[in-house]
Every structure is written in C-alpha cells, then in structure tokens.
Design a protein that fits this description.
- It is built from seven helices and 15 strands.
- The strands form three sheets. An eight-stranded mixed beta sheet has the order 4-3-5-6-7-8-9-10, with helices on both faces.
- It has two domains: 188 residues, Fructose-1,6-Bisphosphatase, subunit A, domain 1 (Fructose-1,6-Bisphosphatase, Chain A, domain 1, 2-Layer Sandwich); 129 residues, D-Maltodextrin-Binding Protein, domain 2.
- The structure holds 2,5-anhydro-1,6-di-O-phosphono-D-glucitol and manganese (II) ion (2 copies).
- One manganese (II) ion (MN) binds next to strand 5.
Length: 334
C-alpha cells in the first residue's frame, strides 16, 4: 500500500475538492516544516542545550522556557518570507507581527502557541505546537492586532503537532480531521489517520483537580458525579487523565474520546479560565467539532465567541459530545 504524504493530501484538497487555495496549501506546508524543526530540537533536548528557563517572561506573565523562545523564532522565520501571510500572532509576543516590508504580503493571518505544555519540557513529557489560520479582512493593508479578532468559526485551517513518542500533525481545513506521522529519517509527513472521529460517549475526563476548591457549582456537580462512578447517578465508572499539555490531552481525546476541561476560576471571577481563545481554544475547538465532538465555554460554543483581545482567556469544555453537552447543561441550570 502506498502512503499519502501531507503534500499529496493538501493537493487533493486543493485540486479535487477545490477546498483550499494554493496559497493556503503552501502556507500549511511551511507551518508543517517549522513543526518538523521544532520536533528535532525537542528530541535533541539536553544534548542541544535547549532545556531550562530562558530567563524572560511573556505577556501572559509566565516564565518562558528556552524552547518557548526557540519554537517561536522557528515559526516566525519559517513563515515570514513565503508571501502567503499578512501577519502572525503568538502566545509569546505581546502584539502581532506584520510581515516585514522586504517580503511580499499575502492574505492570511497565522496564530500560534509555539510550545504548548511548557511545564513538561524539562521532565521529558509530550509537548506540542498549536496553530490557527484566518483570512485578513478585506481591504486592510496594514495588519494589526484588531484584524485577528475574528470568531473561531472563520478559521480556514487549524491544527497541532504533538511531540510525543512519535511526532504527529493533526489538521483540519474544514473537511474532517487528518493525522500525519513524521518519518524523521527522511523528514516527511505521512497520512496515518483520516476522518478522525471522537466517540459521543466516554469514560475518561481530564481536569486539573487540584483547583477543585475554586470551581464553580456546575463543574463541582459534574465532576462529583463522574467520581461517584457506578454508585452514582451516571451508573458507570470513569477514569481521569491529566498530562498538563493541552495538545497531549486533546490528542488522546481525538484518538479515543474523553472530555477536557479548564473551567473559569472562583479565585479571579473576571479571569475566564487559563487557556487562550485565539491560539488554543479556537483551533482545538474547531478540530474537535470537525471530529464530531463539541466545544463550549460552559454556556457558548467556543467558535461563536467574538474576541475582544488577542490574548483573551476562556473557559474550556471540549471533547465527546454527550459529556460536553451535559456539563454545559449544568451551567444553564444553575
Ligand atoms: P502553555 O505551556 O502554552 O502556557 O499552556 C499550558 C496549558 C495547557 O497546555 C495545559 O492544559 C495547562 O496549561 C496545564 O495547566 P496546569 O498547570 O493547571 O496543569
Ligand atoms: Mn498552551
Ligand atoms: Mn505555549
């Protein structure tokens, strides 16, 4: 059986289905190439001196790891000259980055979380890269932060790379979800899963339970019922998993089902959760929906949220449809 490469997959989406323009295909290939480079750095680890703190902070008030900074640089350098982008925005940069004047500007906007799960880098646990592609609004010549503020439903491509025991790329252009595995000997991505589908029911959930005392009533109720297992109202036992890399947790859910939660916190009621809407929740939410799952912030569909700020945070409930609908309905009842 001959395998389908990432290029062939994208050409087919472009040619046969007329789903994506050539510029978007080329842009996605460059993003995939950047993820390949990040994967090589992650794998060299201590041997390449890439572990540990960078000694700097980002706009989120978080300490940056060396690999956060390296991955951000790799993505910027790989994508700035291709001619398909107008600007980029990143978790690691205060403001968006317009394509410099020395290169041609295209019509797409790229957002990314260069290294997701940074706390896992130094302990050799899976990390990843998340990205989202939007169109530049019509008639805009000078891209700025405000042009990125589009709801997730307007994404034209979204995906992530997971740097685990193998490196995989999971991608949607709005026609289902495909998974590619990197053959690092020859540096090529090969299609290893097509039309990934999340089962509507699950017995697995993911939440950082150390925040329990800060949860709101709907989340407490939902998790208590899961924990009560076969003796409780759910009548079945559930298992809990938390990698603390969203990419790795979502990859498990896309592969075999489950629900991922990062709720709003009572400590800071004005701070809606930890995760960021534009480059974490939106791309993951779209992938989950494209795989037949659901994604809400407890009350609204994630993809319908009108963003107000580039680094805006949002509560997240995503994964197996029936579980997401249940926890969302608990928010409505209270
Ligand atoms: P990042 O490393 O990009 O800042 O994202 C970390 C996120 C996400 O990957 C993960 O699900 C979550 O933070 C982990 O949070 P806890 O530290 O509460 O476990
Ligand atoms: Mn992240
Ligand atoms: Mn990150």
């Amino acid at each position: 059986m001959s395998r389908v490469s990432l290029t062939q997959y994208l050409v087919e989406k472009q040619r046969e289905k007329n789903l994506i323009p050539a510029e978007l295909r080329l842009l996605l290939e460059v993003v995939a190439r950047a993820c390949k480079r990040i994967s090589f750095s992650v794998r060299k680890g201590e041997l390449a001196g890439v572990l540990g703190d960078a000694g700097t902070g980002n706009v989120q008030g978080e300490q940056q790891k060396k690999l956060d900074v390296i991955a951000n640089e790799v993505l910027l350098e790989a994508n700035e000259w291709g001619g398909n982008l107008a600007a980029m925005a990143s978790e690691e940069m205060d403001h968006s980055y317009p394509i410099p004047n020395r290169y041609p500007r295209g019509s797409f906007l790229l957002l990314f979380d260069p290294l997701d799960g940074s706390s896992n880098i130094d302990v050799n646990v899976s990390v990843g890269t998340i990205f989202s592609v939007l169109r530049m609004p019509e008639g805009v010549t000078d891209p700025a932060d405000e042009h990125f503020l589009q709801p997730g439903s307007r994404q034209v491509a979204a995906g992530y790379a997971v740097y685990g025991p193998s490196t995989q790329l999971v991608l949607t252009v709005g026609d289902g979800v495909a998974e590619f595995t990197l053959d690092s000997d020859i540096g090529s991505w090969w299609l290893t899963g097509n039309n990934l589908t999340i089962p509507a029911d699950t017995r697995e959930y993911a939440i950082n339970a150390s925040n329990r005392r800060h949860w709101m009533a709907p989340v407490r109720r939902y998790v208590e019922e899961l924990e009560a297992g076969s003796q409780g109202p759910r009548g079945k036992d559930f298992n809990m998993r938390w990698v603390a890399s969203m990419v790795a947790d979502i990859h498990r859910i896309i592969t075999r089902g489950g629900i991922f939660m990062y709720p709003r916190d009572q400590r800071e009621p004005d701070k809606p959760g930890k995760l960021r809407l534009m480059y974490e929740a939106n791309p993951m939410g779209w992938l989950i929906e494209q795989a037949g799952g659901a994604a809400t912030d407890g009350t609204r569909r994630i993809l319908d949220i009108e963003p107000e700020k580039l680094h805006q945070r949002v509560a997240v409930f995503m994964g197996s449809k029936n579980e997401v609908e249940r926890v969302t309905s608990y928010h409505r009842e209270l």
